[in-house]
Amino acid sequence: MTVLLFIIGVALMALAIAASIALHELGHLVPAKLFGVRVPQYMIGFGKTIFSWRRGETEYGFKALPLGGYISMIGMYPPGRDGADGRAGGTSPLQQLAREARAADAERITEADQGRLFYQLPVYKRIIIMLGGPFMNLLIGVVATMVLVTGFGSYQPTTSVQTVAQCVQTVESTNANTANSTECGVEDPRSPANAAGLQPGDTVTAFAGQTITSWDQLTELIRTNADTEVPLTVERSGQSLELTITPMLTVRPIYDELTGTYLANSDGSYQTQEVGFIGISPSSELTPGTIGEVLPTVGESLERIGATLIKLPARVYGVAVTLVTNGERDANSPVSVVGVGRIAGEIAAHDQIILRDKAASLVSLVAQMNLMLFAFNLIPLLPLDGGHVLGALWEGFRRKSAKLLGRPDPGPFDPVKLLPLTYLVAGAFLLMTMILVAADIFKPVSIL
To answer: Is residue 25 annotated as a catalytic residue, yes or no?
Structure first.
């Protein structure tokens, strides 16, 4: 039964990934056709075509490698300055590469395509076409987040105590996990919560003379009242109890909520800070949200994703080192579509997670995956959508500048000139994908 549930989880995520890719490409296809551009192909995947069908002037189909998708549009490359198809010119490898790409694109153009070529469109129409794909991912991410927030809700910390630590462990700068250890050492002092008589199930109603309404408020008060004896009011079994407690000044690792990791120094050690600490953790309860919380939640997710993308090359390098040295993989390391599918399978197969939470976790994965695709595709590098948008904007700027200065029209943006950089970027992305896929097979991340 466990294996069957694992397969079902993987299959559901595979369908979600395929649907996300298909809708991304549909976001490009629809405006391209509305603006009159001829689109010969709409494909999900890369490599050899598994099956396809033709409707009108477009071939629709699936290819062998389900690692993305594409639509091909006629006239992506403008004519070279040396001729309509760019066959003349220099003999360097880069010039040869550019000529071959331009010639291959020119061979598909017929007389009926004149006026329907991509590069002939106004700048704003090209931008709409290229942003259509990422916008679809953003839309999916927003809808999935709305379902998650309003339909399932999220577990929020309460002011009720779930656990009380027996002692306070010393945190090492080289090991942030010691902050979460449950084993007490001989020299570890008794925790303030334990000394004050706090028990699991207590609800904190007042701390340091302030009425407590949230866990975040309580945490801030604990941190700022180190080495100070303060009054503490709890509700236990329907009765209100007055206690006193002295938060201990302790060294804690600094947790970055944007990336979900502990902050590290350049030498690899963890950054720490001295704060008040009493040794309790909160219970959580499932709390449905409102429509008004959806966009802020999406914004927070995109902020975390942006911080992750900035560090992506370094983090992928860390995964490669782990793979080569057979080290322990960081639970917060990036994953490929293989890793996402595996995580979905583990969630579906786990017998300690109720069906509602399994469904919520899968919806959350779909939301985060699409928001990641949205942000990733906006990176202003070819061959990504953001690179084409930047190129169109650059063309618009050059043409307007030339018009204002009375100079000749510089012509359309020519992505052929950036083919070497395009291939370099595509190769880097392919290499990162291969590293992550290999790591997800041989050193998978387990979230359970």
So the answer is: yes
